[in-house]
Amino acid sequence: xxxxxxxxxxxxxxxxxxxxxxxxxxxxxxxxxxxxxxxxxxxxxxxxxxxxxxxxxxxxxxxxxxxxxxxxxxxxxxxxxxxxxxxxxxxxxxxxxxxxxxxxxxxxxxxxxxxxxxxxxxxxxxxxxxxxxxxxxxxxxxxxxxxxxxxxxxxxxxxxxxxxxxxxxxxxxxxxxxxxxxxxxxxxxxxxxxxxxxxxxxxxxxxxxxxxxxxxxxxxxxxxxxxxxxxxxxxxxxxxxxxxxxxxxxxxxxxxxxxxxxxxxxxxxxxxxxxxxxxxxxxxxxxxxxxxxxxxxxxxxxxxxxxxxxxxxxx
Length: 315
Ligand SMILES: NCc1[nH]cc(CCC(=O)O)c1CC(=O)O
What we know:
Blueprint: E1 10-14, H1 18-35, E2 42-46, H2 50-53, H3 59-62, H4 70-77, E3 83-87, E4 99-104, E5 112-115, E6 130-132, H5 136-145, E7 150-152, H6 158-166, E8 172-176, H7 177-182, E9 190-192, E10 207-212, H8 216-223, H9 228-243, E11 252-259, E12 262-270, E13 277-285, H10 289-303
Parallel strand pairs: 1-2, 1-3, 6-7, 6-8
Antiparallel strand pairs: 3-10, 4-10, 5-8, 5-9, 11-12, 12-13
The ligand NCc1[nH]cc(CCC(=O)O)c1CC(=O)O binds at residues 87, 89-90, 175-176, 178-179, 204-205.
């Protein structure tokens, strides 16, 4: 292998949240190990995004999925950073000209976690309970199964959410298992929700690393830490999302699994108020992942009524 020996440190861009920093550190550690480089060969650069700056309004009011990425991508294009580490769940399906997002670390647990201070489960949650979430997907999936529940907007990091539970703002919330695991938050009272009960968001649990398309050093380095199975699963999931024109404002879930050379993709779309959910699955050769994603999306779209995606906040 062509071992790049960087004369200047590789600048790794990231958001400043504890989870983002943990993911940037994991990326640096994997690169350092792969190339037997000291940590000084890397600089971690924290970048504040619009999504980080505006913390007092629901995400859906401030804009779509670029909210947490635009400033980071600008910094890469201007050379202030060389690579950027992202939660793939938050990434738009298209990247700006001049940037490539094709490196993935091994995927973490894909499931959501049900969080209640008493350690209870979703099934045991009393009728009429209040659940805090800012995710339209979780909200719609929850209301679909439990129309008796009341959903309140919940933003902020794990600590903030736990504090809100302690204050009684809500009886339960949801977080991705991946985030809790990456932060070593094993003491949080969490119950994993099976994929059958709640299909996760497309790309949940996956870390992606973006680079300039003309940066040969970054390309060589990232190739050494890329996880091919994660890339194959995300290719199918993100093609599904792209075909649905998915954004923050559309409750969409999707999960690909691999069994040898066969990929199975499950997908679900919901009305925002949870009143209707359409789901389906498709299997085929791994190499056809993007085609399978598009086919699954087309099948679901053909079953959706014309007003299926209309924005309805419900009550
Ligand atoms: N939208 C926020 C976000 N983006 C990625 C994760 C968790 C980690 C992951 O799924 O990779 C979270 C928080 C959450 O859903 O609990």
